Amino acid sequence: MVVVPTRELCLQVTDDLATAAKYLTAEETRRLSVVSIYGGRAYEPQVEALRAGADVVVGTPGRLLDLSQQGHLQLGGLSVLVLDEADEMLDLGFLPDIERILRQIPAERQSMLFSATMPDPIITLARTFMVQPTHIRAEAPHSLAVHDTTEQFVYRAHALDKVELVSRILQARDRGATMIFTRTKRTAQKVADELKERGFAVGAVHGDLGQIAREKALKAFRGGDVNVLVATDVAARGIDIDDVTHVINYQCPEDEKMYVHRIGRTGRAGRTGVAVTLVDWDELDRWTTIDTALGLGSPTPPKPTPTHRTCTPSCPSRPRPPRPSVPTRVAAQAPCHGSGGPAIGNRSLRREASTAHPRRQTGHRASRPRPRE
Fold first, then answer.
1. Which SS3 state, helix, strand or coil, does residue 103 take?
2. Would the pTM of this model clear 0.90, i.e. be above it?
3. Which of 1, 209, 258, 336 could hold 154 in an S-S bridge, CB 3.0 to 4.6 Å?
4. Is 302 exposed, middle or buried (0-12, 13-18, 19+ CB in 10 A)?
5. Is residue 321 part of a domain?
6. Are 157 and 165 contacting, i.e. CB atoms less than 8 angstroms apart?
7. Segments forming the whole domain that contains residue 176
8. Cα dihedral 227/231/236/239 (nearest 10)
9. How many domains does the chain fold into?
10. 255 contacts: CB under 8 Å, gap ≥ 6
């Protein structure tokens, strides 16, 4: 049995296992069966699949416990248990459910726990329910912070300017599939709606959407029907999509681990990628912490300058429209790494007049002094 934190990851793992088991047999000539169990869908089809017989069950903690308590899922005969994305299950509050599952399965079993990080509760879980576990580190401790094939850029941008800035990035030459990350469900839907109004093919994945809508959006993104996917961190956890050329952090990540996880969606398998982080004024402290932890070399994006341009040679800017003769400030800042960057255009995204508006005069207007005779 494989336990995963999210529905999307459940479906992805099920598909991967079904592909791997395509030419495997369980008993005599019977093909190996893989069944997915997760919330947001009706119980009946999942119960019928279990009754038909399942060699591998992939599921989320809540639905697995529900079916176990109803007697549809028998955990007493389990021989192998896999806990995937254990740190994410901890963050989502699934640790008590995991402990309940572990108490129902046989003591003699093979257990495997996969986690990007190893916080103390996960270490305690491993020591409590695993016998002399072997700790295998897949990568060096600091290798996650190094993305040699991904160009990383940071821009200071006001919240009101971010959609315009993202629109210009999406017009970059040679841009392929793009993932946009937000911290909240409301922001994810808002960004998706505004980009759709601007003519982009956009899908959204977040917790406020029904399971069918989320699956439809992911299928469209994988199939190329839409080339922009706006997602929250939780909904996108564990989703593996090939050929992502750009990652945009619409909102600054919570910490350096989430930053690494986000930008790791591009620049895979020897391909190059671009990661852009938009930092609002109230996110500067968070970004400084991330930059310091990862050693990115840009703790604070440069201050705005009236003559700053962020257009790359490969992405020519549009003609500059006429402007009022007032000083301007640019919300988007210079990239923190590399000499190039995504196409952001040549137009300032925010204008701030340096001179105050003249006060409205009240009372009688002063008369012009008469020349002396």
1. helix
2. no
3. 336
4. middle
5. no
6. yes
7. 143-294
8. 0
9. 2
10. 286, 289, 290, 293
Q: Side chain identity at 234, as an amino acid letter?
A: V
Kindly state whether residues 122 and 159 are assigned to the same domain: no
pLDDT(348) > 60: no
Both tokens of residue 19? 């592909």
Instruction: Name the band, by pLDDT with cuts 50, 70 and 90, for residue 145.
Output: low
Share of residues in the chain with pLDDT > 70 (%): 76
Q: Which two tokens stand for residue 256?
A: 């350096």
Can you name the residues that pair with 2 across neighbouring β-strands? 58, 82
Structure tokens at 96: 């008590």
Instruction: Give the domain CATH number at 285.
Output: 3.40.50.300
Please identify which residue in the block is written with the tokens 């401790």. Answer: 141
With beta carbons less than 8 A apart as the criterion, state whether 163 and 194 touch: yes
Residue 336 to residue 277: CA distance in whole angstroms: 10
What would the two tokens of residue 186 be? 């409301």
Note the pLDDT tens digit of each residue in 11-22: 989 999 999 888
In this structure, are residues 7 and 39 in contact, taking their beta carbons and an 8 Å threshold? yes
244-249 and 34-37 strand pairing:
unpaired
As a whole number of angstroms, the longest Cα–Cα distance in the chain is 121
